[in-house]
Amino acid sequence: MPIYSEKVMEHFMNPRNVGEIENPDGVGEVGNPVCGDIMTFYIKVNGNRLEDVKFKTFGCGAAIAVSSMVSEMAMGKTLDEAKKITPRLVAEELGGLPQNKFHCSNLGAQALSKAIDNYRKKQAKGGKK
Amino acid sequence: MPYLDELFGNPSCLHDWGDAAREAMDTAREQVAQLIGAGADEIIFTGSGTESNNFAVKGMALAQQSKGKHIIVSAIEHFSVLHSAKTLEKWGFKLTEVPVDRYGMVDPDEVRKRIRKDTVLVSIMHANGEVGTIEPIEEIAGITREHNIPFHTDAIVTAGTIPVNVQELGVDALSLAGNQFYGPKGIGALYVRKGVRIMPLLDGGVQEGGRRAGTENVPAVVGLGKAAELAKNDMASRVKHLSHLRERLLAELPARIDHMVVTGHPENRLPGNASFCVEFIEGESMLMLLNSQGVAVTSGSACTSRALKASHVLIAMGLSHEIAQGSVLFTFGIDNAEEDVDYVLEVMPPIVERLRQMSPLYAKFTKTGKGGH
Is residue B159 a contact partner of residue B184, using CB atoms and an 8 Å limit? Predict the structure, then answer.
């Protein structure tokens, strides 16, 4: 499968942080079946930091590797730091992505960002923490 | 490979080396003609199956444009037919696509209904390589003959694999390719019935009866001829062997994996074709995990295609994008054996399970019971 970098293959074969969080503090979902990839990110927040990040992904090898990499990059970061994770940074960390996969499969950062927004919205409404 | 070495002559040349190459091509032409029940002078060698399809669709339509500018193709044609037809559309032709049913089958009556006074070409594939469905070509040919409209069939996945006879099928033109039956890559042929008009796409010398200019790829032509001969001789045993392996996989794999459906026609299908859709997961990730276990498959999912679009064949059969994303195609070859089926039956279920555990669609389904088919 030479279309993917070694790092992408490694994350695809051994994805980190797959799963769901029970009673998550925030959830973010992106994608649709027509484009081919659907990603859901779950976060647990402690203070201002991401204490836990998990994901479920329907999609190609790149989509799964991206999700795994985003979860790893975000873990332990403050919410503001995690918000700064961009698709470009994720692709760089993965040693590059095929050009045609860059946009459709590289939605992990967006899903994480949505999960953080979801958490913040709940906070603003006077939720827990 | 003498035709790359001492027999390097150009078949258009009159010297002895040219003669040797020409004789070799004559033999190959006869072998290809015999494979499909044609006359040797009705075979034109091309550079690929794609070229054969381009040549047939564009060349036959253009040759008759004074009579009319309407063509009919099915919705599940290979892109070499479909995109040729769309190019003709840009050149002022009108294009009508015939739909297929959920098995990918063309209804001959649907072809009949679309014939107009100005229809100058019908092109329907003999079988579809993605889902294996074999089309009712003889019946369609009966209809086109009634209306005196030239009929081309793309037989690239059938010629050399199952019996193909141009007289029995009743077609006016037929495409085939060498790499589909253990011949060399980069060689194809187009059968054009004597008397049927076709406009050359390549102008130049008078090779191939003036219908396809350019120095012939002699080694590949010879290889195609030999492959055609072998395919003809071994066809019955190959079909029996491949059909048995296919039947096992079609029956036993969905028995081990829930929410996995067979795509394509249950009976009228290519001997080596076992195509499925697995729900809640995506084809490329299946392909990659199977590859890591030494199993080579293909998929019609959007992510697998470079264009990132789900297979037009699966969509034309009425499958949703979600289901089409889970497409996986196993094709058997003559070197496959029972053990290979056993091996797939062993490695595939854990791969599906692993990807489903990762899939938000599967999570949704197990929680709500929604999203299953």
Answer: no
